[in-house]
Amino acid sequence: MITLLKKTNNEEPKASEVLIIRPSRGWRHINLNEIWRYRELLYFLAWRDIKVRYKQTVLGAAWAIIQPFFTMIIFSIFFGKLAKIPSDGVPYPIFAYAALVPWTFFANGLMESTNSLVTSANLIRKIYFPRLVLPIAAVISGIVDFILAFVVLLGMMLFYGIMPTANIVWLPFLLLLALTASLGVGMWLTAMNVQFRDVRYVVPFLVQVWLFATPIAYPSSLLVEPWRTFYGLNPMVGVVEGFRWALLGTDTTPGGAIFVSTFMAIMLFVSGMFYFRRMERTFADVV
Amino acid sequence: MNNIAIKVKNLSKQYRIGEQQTKYRTIRETLTDAVQAPFRRIGKILQGHAYGAADMDETIWALKDVSFEVKRGEVVGIIGRNGAGKSTLLKMLSRITEPTEGMAEIHGRVGSLLEVGTGFHPELTGRENIFLNGAILGMKKKEMVRKFDEMVSFAEIEKFIDTPVKFYSSGMYVRLAFAVAAHLEPEILLVDEVLAVGDAEFQKKCLGKMGDVAKGGRTVLFVSHNMLSLKNLCNKGVLLHSGRVVMENNIDAVISKYLDKDIKHAGETSWSSPEIAPGDDRVKLKAVRVISEGNVTGEVDISKDFWIEIDYWNLEPNKQRMVFIHIHNSMGIWIISSGNLASLTLNKDPWSYRPYPEGVFRTACKIPGCLLNDGHYNISVYIAGSGMSNVIIAKKDVLSFSVLDTGLMREEYTGAWPTVIRPRLEWGTEQLSSK
User: Fold this and answer.
1) What is the complex's ipTM, to 2 decimals?
2) Which residue of A has its CA nearest to B122?
3) Are residue B237 and residue B316 in the same domain, yes or no?
4) In a domain, B131, yes or no
5) CATH number of the domain bearing residue B394
6) Which residues of B touch A2 (CB under 8 A)?
7) Is residue A206 part of a domain?
8) What separation, in Å, do the N-terminal and C-terminal C-alpha atoms of chain B show?
9) How far does the CA of residue A185 sit from the closest CA of chain B (Å)?
10) Number of structural domains in chain B
11) What are the average pLDDT values for consecutive 10-residue runs of chain B, which has 435 residues?
12) How far is CA B130 from CA B108, B144, B394, in A?
C-alpha cells in the first residue's frame, strides 16, 4: 500500500515526496487527499462521458428527457388512468415525473458506475490513479442529464400551475442524497463486477425491482406508520418523497423516513468506499 | 543530500496463472466475452471440459527478489526476454499493481508511460484527446494549455486538430499520442516499449526527444528490445531473466551479456489444448517451431535452409486464413516480414484463398541458407482472416532461434561481420578489353 510520508502543503507534489510501495493487507484507509489531487482527471473523465454520450447518439441530449418523460406517460396511462392509483392530490403525470427525474439520475448513475471499471480496463492496466475516480466520474456525469430533465419538470409545473414551495431550498440536499446512494451501491457493484462479470447481468434486474420498490408509480402515503419509516430503508424513498414535498408541496413531510434514508445512503456510501478500496489492489491484475 | 531516486528491495510479484491470462485480454475480447461467456461456458460443460477455478490454482513468480538502486539523473535500461518481468517491474513502480513481497522507495514525482494514447477516445477530436490523455497521464490543465501548441506541432497534425481521431490515419493517431506523452515532465519517468510505433522518421524524432529528456537530468527507467536505442539513451542497464536480476552494470556490459548469453533455444513453442492457446473462437495457435534438416532445433546452420512451421486450430469453418511471420534480430532490427499471400511467395500456397474447414493446419515457410547473419533471432507470428486488417492472432516474439556460423564463408575472411544479413551472392568478372 502506498503512503505519502512527507507531503508539502502545496497541491503540486514536490521533490521531497517519497513514495513507499509495498504489499498491503486487509482494509485500507480512504485517501481523500489523493482523490482531491486527481480532481482534474475526475473532471475530464466526467466531461468525456457526457461528450461521448451526446456525440454518439442521434438524438443526443434529448435522451435525457425522453427516458423519464415517456416512462411518465406510460405510468400515467396504466397506473394513473387505468389503475386509478392515488397521487397525493396533484395531477398524476407530474406526480410521477417529479419522482422519475431523481430516479433516472439514480438508476443511470448506478448502471454507469457499475460498468465504469470494466469499460476503463485499459486505463487501469496502463496507468495509476485512484480508481475511485472512475465510479465517481460516472455518477457525476449524470448531473447534466438530470438538469435537462429537471428543466422539463419546471415546464410541467408551469403548465399545471403549481408553484414550488419554499422547501425547494432542500433540493440540492436531496440530489446529493440520490448521488450518495447511487455511488454507494455503484462502488459495491463495480468492485464486484471486476471479479464476477455476472454482476452486469444482475444490475438491470436490480434496477427494475428497485423501481417498483420505490414510491414512483404510487405514493408512500399508502403505508401507515411505523411502516412508512421502515420504508425509508430504501434510500430512494426519502429522495423521491422529498422531491414531491419540496416541489409540489405534497403532504409527504419528510419525517422518520428521510432520516432513515439519509442514514442508509451514508452507510452504503462509506461501506462501498471501504469495500472498493479493499478490492482495488487486485483490479489491475484481474480486470 | 540523498541522491537516490529509486530503491528497490526484494520486490516480488506472484500471479495466479488464471490471472495472468486475463491480464492480457483486450477490451474487445472482454466485451465479446461478456456476450459469449455464459454460452461458451455451458458449451464447455456440455463437451465435458473442466472450466473452473480448479485449473487456475497454479501460481508463478513474475518477479522474484529484485533489488537495485537508481541514482538521480541516471538513465537505466531494463533488458530481458519476453516474460523476464520487465513490464511487471514497471507496473509495480508506477503503482498500477501491488507487489506480493518486498518494497520500493521512490523519491520524486513519477510519470509512467506504459503505452501511448491510453484513454484516447475515437469520438473525440484531437484537441479534446490531448486534454483527456494529458489529464490521465497526470498533467495539470494549466500545463497542458501552455504546451498545447508545442504538442500539436510536434505531432504535425495542425490541420486536423478539430477532427475526431477516428478519422485519423494510424500514423497520425500514434504521433498525436506520443506528442502528449513526450511533453510529460516528471522527475522520474518510467517508459515501457512505446517507441516501437510510427514510421522510422517519427521514431527518430521521438528518440531525439527522449534523449533530451535523459540529458535534462531526469531519472528514466526505460524498457526496450531495441538495443541500439538503449545504447544511445542509457548509461546503466539491469538485466532480468525469469523474474530475477542477472546483472546490474553499465549499459554496454549488460547488452553484451544479454546478447552473448548462451541461452538454449528450445526450437519450439507449443500449446497442448485450444483452451490455453492464444487466439479466439476463430483460430487458436497450436505450435511454432524451427525445423532444420528434419529436426526441431533452436540452432540452425548458417548455410542450410530451414523451415518455420506454424500449427493452428481452425475453429470456424469456411473462412480464409493467412499466416504471416516477422523476424527481428537481437538488436531489435526487423529483418523479414512475409506471409503466404500469392504475390509474396515463390510458389502458390495450395491453401491460400481457399476456405478452411475446421481442423488442425500447418503452414510452413522456408528460409534459405546463406541469408541471415549469425546471431539470435525472434519470430513473431500473425494469423489473419480474410483481409489483412483482420488479424486474429498476433503473437510477438513467440520463438527465438540462433543462426550458427559454421565457417562456410570463413575461408578467406575471418573478421567481424557487422551486417544485418549475410547473403551469399552471385559474382562474375569479365575482361572487357585487353591493353
Assistant:
1) 0.81
2) A52
3) no
4) no
5) 2.70.50.60
6) 95
7) yes
8) 79
9) 22
10) 2
11) 84 71 47 58 44 50 90 89 84 91 90 83 91 89 90 88 89 85 84 68 73 78 80 88 88 81 68 85 92 88 92 91 90 87 89 90 93 89 81 87 80 78 91 89
12) 25, 8, 29
